Amino acid sequence: MELSKYTHKKDKFTDELVKMIYFTDIDISRYLFSDDYVKAAHTIKLMLIKNEYIFLNDCINILYDESKLLGFSLSYSGKDKKKFIIDKELEKKTKALEEILTSDISDRQMYLHYIYTDKAVRGKGAGSMLMQKVFSDARDKNCTEVLLDVASDNSNAISFYKKKGFSVYEEKKNVSINIIGSLCMKIKI
Predict the structure, then answer these.
(1) Which of 167, 166, 168 is nearest to 182 (CA)?
(2) By Cβ atoms counted within 10 A, which residue in 21, 56, 133, 179 is the most buried?
(3) Residue 47's closest CA among 28, 70, 21, 25?
(4) Which helix (DSSP H) or strand (DSSP E) does residue 5 occupy?
(5) Alpha-carbon span 97 to 30, nearest angstrom
(6) Looking at the whole model, is its pTM more than 0.85?
(7) How many Cβ atoms sit within 10 Å of the Cβ of residue 134?
(8) Alpha carbons 186 and 92: distance in angstroms, whole number
(9) pLDDT in tens, 98-126
(10) Could you give the percent of the chain with pLDDT greater than 90?
């Protein structure tokens, strides 16, 4: 397995990455982009190519072998968040998500938006490799904490994060949109 920064200009895994992004958190993907996968995938791919919204290429790490994307992480600092390019419609939807997701990220905090590994490599160190890269990226950006949100019913992910040293600091309940609540977790690095 190899790990590197994603770049759409030379990456043969873009279509696989788009699919992983969409299905990693399908409820949020459907809410933000579209119930129709083809439409949503087109939007996500354009954002990757244009380096927009959370899809800043230098915030995405990919894990792969010669022929297949095996996983990815997407994390950004408070400074990175200030660079987000977002249209009005998406901005409105993003505001509604603040009910269940961490929204205030300081310049000294890194937010882990996604971490995903293919089922074939789970339990083989793939998630740990991606997490170590997130911690390294956070230190490189002078961050002292990594924050994340996880669906409150995702026991496997919660267990993984706790093993990595994360602790729950808040539970958020969903009120206005039809998406399950979340646990807000953090670790000092």
Answers:
(1) 168
(2) 21
(3) 21
(4) strand 2-5
(5) 12
(6) yes
(7) 24
(8) 26
(9) 655 676 789 999 999 999 999 999 999 99
(10) 62
